[in-house]
Amino acid sequence: MVDLSSRRAVLNWRKSSASQAANECVEVAASGPSVLVRDSHDHAAGVIALASTQWRGLLNAIRNGELDRR
Q: What are phi and psi of 22, to 5 degrees?
């Protein structure tokens, strides 16, 4: 879990423009060398911090369809 109590105001959370009307996706924010990921519907559920290499690996897996039907 990532402690965001002192940095909450400075994070620029973003989500896909395709889902701006709904809260059914994840949001991401850059925090130093990490990419933070959270549920857009339930912010209290926590945050996952990924290293930049992990983030790129996740994006590549999504783009390549490696996570479809899981």
A: -115, 160
H-run or E-run covering 31: strand 26-31
User: What CA–CA distances, in Å, run from 33 to 19, 27, 45, 65?
Assistant: 26, 17, 22, 26
Starting at the earlier edge strand, list the strands of the sheet with 47-51: 26-31, 34-39, 47-51
Name 27's bridge partners.
Answer: 38
Closest by CA position to 54, among listed 27, 32, 29, 33:
33
List, in order, residues 6 or more apart from 69 with CB less than 8 Å away: none
- Model's pTM, two decimal places? 0.73
* Alpha helices, H only, 1-70: 52-63
Average pLDDT over residues 9-16: 83
